[in-house]
Amino acid sequence: MRTPLVALPGLVLAAFGLSHPHYLGAETAQWWRDMHVILAVVFPLLGAAQWVLLDDSPKYVRYPARVLSFGFVVFYGALDALAGIGGGAMTLANGGRSPADEPLFKIGNQLGTVGAWCFFAASIAIAVCALLKHRLKAIPGAAFLLVGSFLFLDSHIYWPKGVIACTCIAVGMAAISFVSPRPVR
C-alpha cells in the first residue's frame, strides 16, 4: 500500500499541471486561486512521501533529510499561499494584474526556490540511500526521482516541464518504495 501512496502526490500534481494557467490574468485568476487552494493540501503530501521513503535510511541521513523535507513543505507552501492563492485573489479582486502585486510574487518565488532546493536535496539523500542499500534494483527509481526533482527546481507544475517533473518524481518514488521493503518496527 505504501508504493501507490508515495506516488499519488506527484501524479495529482502532474494532473493539475495540465490545467495550470501559464499566465495570471483576469480571465485565469479564478482557476489560479482555486487550484492553489486545493494544491495547498497536495504539496505537503509530496514532502510526506519523502519522509516515508526515508524510513529505512541511517539516522545520520534520515534526520537531516527529513529537515529538508520539512523545509520543502514550509517554503514551497509559502509560495503556494502567496503567489498562488494570494496572487490569484488579488488579480481577481483588481480585475487583472497590477504592479502592486509584484512584491507578493517576488517573495513567493524566492521562498519557493528555497523549498524546491530542499526537495531536491532530500531527493538526493533518498536516491543515494536506496542505491547503497538496493544497488542495481534502485537505479531506475533513483534516476527518475533525481531527474524529476532537478526539473522541479524551476518548473513548478506548469505544462510541459512541470508535468514531466512531477510524473518523474511519482515514478521514482514508487520505484524506490517498491524495491525497499517497509522496515519492521
How is this structure best summarized?
With 185 residues, this protein is mostly helical. The chain contains 6 helices and no strands.
In total, the number of domains comes to 1
Q: Determine the mean pLDDT.
A: 96
Q: Rough shape? A: elongated
Strand content bin: under 5%
* Residue share in helix: over 70%
The number of E-state strands comes to 0
**Helical/strand content category:** mainly alpha
Radius of gyration: 17 Å
Tally of contiguous helical segments: 6
User: For the report, how would you describe the main beta sheet?
Assistant: none
Kindly, what is the distance between the CA atoms of the first and last residues, rounded to a whole number of angstroms?
17 Å
Order of helices and strands: HHHHHH
Low-confidence stretches: none
Task: Summarize the topology.
Elements: H1 2-17, H2 29-53, H3 59-94, H4 102-134, H5 139-152, H6 161-179
Helix pairs in contact: 1-2, 1-6, 2-3, 3-4, 4-5, 5-6
Question: Can you describe what's shown?
Answer:
- This protein has 185 residues and is mainly alpha-helical.
- It has one domain.
- It is 77% helix and 0% strand.
- The chain contains 6 helices and no strands.
- The model has no long low-confidence stretch (mean pLDDT 96).
Keywords:
0% strand; mainly alpha; 185 residues; single chain
